[in-house]
């Protein structure tokens, strides 16, 4: 297919990167998937500067990826937890893909810090690329980009 036929001005990859492509945003999402909910906990596990973390959380809320939920510890002022929305949950395969790539190409001697396992059977989890008919695809060489109507 001619490169000229594909309209890149509305590229979904570029649009997604504009929303979540910054390092701290992706790390916040990683922690949210691991169960972190509160600002102090995000700051503790990430080590992000307070201003940066505040900005990234606000941006993820503004984009509808996280939502703020009020909570109050007895004797303290009301605060907010950050919880994944459906839009946020749908980013999980993206984070798993980044993790698998990092494990494959950045881990020294196969020493990976964390492994994902299926809750029911305990087997390791891996992403798979399939078509709508259920065929497993080995990679980009089995995919043909076509313009959308």
UniProtKB/TrEMBL annotation:
InterPro entries attached to this UniProt entry: HTH_HxlR (IPR002577), WH-like_DNA-bd_sf (IPR036388), WH_DNA-bd_sf (IPR036390)
Pfam families referenced in this protein's UniProt entry, alphabetically: HxlR
Matches recorded under SUPFAM superfamilies: Winged helix' DNA-binding domain
Keyword Transcription regulation: yes
One GO molecular-function entry: DNA binding
Domain HTH hxlR-type positions: 11-110
Keywords: DNA-binding, Transcription, Transcription regulation
Superkingdom of origin organism: Bacteria
Protein name, entry field: Transcriptional regulator, HxlR family
Organism: Trujillonella endophytica
């Amino acid at each position: 297919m001619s490169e000229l036929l594909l309209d890149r001005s509305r590229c979904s990859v570029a649009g997604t990167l504009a929303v979540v492509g910054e390092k701290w945003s992706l790390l916040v999402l990683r922690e949210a998937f691991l169960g972190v909910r509160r600002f102090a906990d995000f700051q503790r596990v990430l080590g992000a500067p307070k201003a940066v973390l505040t900005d990234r959380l606000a941006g993820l809320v503004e984009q509808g990826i996280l939502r703020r939920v009020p909570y109050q510890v007895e004797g303290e002022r009301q605060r907010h937890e950050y919880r994944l929305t459906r839009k946020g949950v749908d980013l999980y395969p993206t984070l798993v893909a980044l993790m698998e790539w990092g494990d494959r190409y950045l881990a020294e001697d196969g020493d990976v810090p964390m492994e994902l396992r299926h809750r029911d059977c305990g087997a390791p989890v891996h992403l798979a690329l399939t078509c709508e008919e259920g065929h497993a695809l080995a990679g980009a060489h089995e995919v043909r980009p076509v313009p959308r109507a």
